[in-house]
Amino acid sequence: MTKTELSAFPRQDWCHYLHKVAEPPLAALAAGRMRTTMPIECDPTQVTRVTKVTQLEALGRTLAGISPWLELADVPVSERERQGQMRQLSRAALVSALDPDSPDALQFDHENQALVDAAFLGHALLRSPVQLFENLDAITRDRLIRALRSTRVIKPGNNNWLLFSAMIETALHRFTGQAEFGPIEHALGKHEEWYVGDGAYSDGPEFHWDYYNSYVIQPMLLDVLEAMAGQKRKDWLKMQVRVRSRAQRFAAVQERLIAADGSYPPLGRSIAYRGGAFQLLAQMALRNDLPATLQPAQIRCALTAVLHRTMDAPNTFDSEGWLRIGLAGHQPGLGESYISTGSLYLCSTIFLPLGLPESARFWRQPDIPWSNALIWGGADTLADHSL
Fold first, then answer.
1. Is the pTM of this model over 0.85?
2. Distance of CA 144 to CAs 65, 109, 137, 172, 345, Å?
3. What domains can be seen in the chain, in order of their start residue?
4. Which of 190, 212, 252, 344 lies 20 to 30 Å from 39, alpha-carbon distance?
């Protein structure tokens, strides 16, 4: 692969795609126009249910991905104006979503799906505590806390959903000093029980071939444990070390899943989340916590290739800029019954490294081909080894 190909997406182009993905839902919600302008693409049998939750899905998932960039204090000069606009849009969207008199007021306790996206919103708050919580007005902060608490009436399934309750309680603890610790303890204990080896967890008692280790499990485990480290519980502190080691191994696996052209196996459910399949890899880059076998530039180049494949395909966006169901374009057959327009915005989590300053090695290191580009290009490199 040539240097020109590897350099196709520098930081400013990542920002271009962040805005392309994030602005339609945030601008619509901030203006109180989301319910009237957001298209609802879904399984026709699910329209009634989806209409109640897809807006919250779009909000929580969008903010979960762009929050580190919103929080970054020293963005390049070229990004400052757009970052300021996106910060304002994000807060205005939260105000609109939480105002009971808003035409776009969102409910957090009417459908089970709300638990999922309240958790993604809680994750966003942990990743951007100043811009998405402290800089809100007092009334909206209070409404946000009450909205998160209202999800306690929803019982999570015995799978990755346990982490949604845990994440919400973790966010409540971070911003109020109070939480119900039972859901956190239960989620952590079960996922320790569900660890199956070589950096991977099963999604509940049985293992599934899909990307849920990255969509949900490992990113939330890392951040719940880190946020709760102040509790100084020996079992959680020891678990934090194990979870980090497993995440590093899983990041190495994820890097090897990315083909030389930026494609990756369309494996398992929720494949329409596009680049959200690599949230864990993006998060480990954001944390400067990649395994020693990987250089930050390798990850930049690999994720850049994924962005290229998943965002440039024709018909990925509709005429108004909203995402459409698919992986390489518009492929509604890839959407399960629970997938709707709002669900698709989990793809924003590929943008997590934009929370790193421009001076970070992730952005400054010269291009380095990732494993598939090296090996299938005929280069000699080290063999892969299990944890």
1. yes
2. 19, 13, 11, 10, 21
3. 3-375 (1.50.10)
4. 212
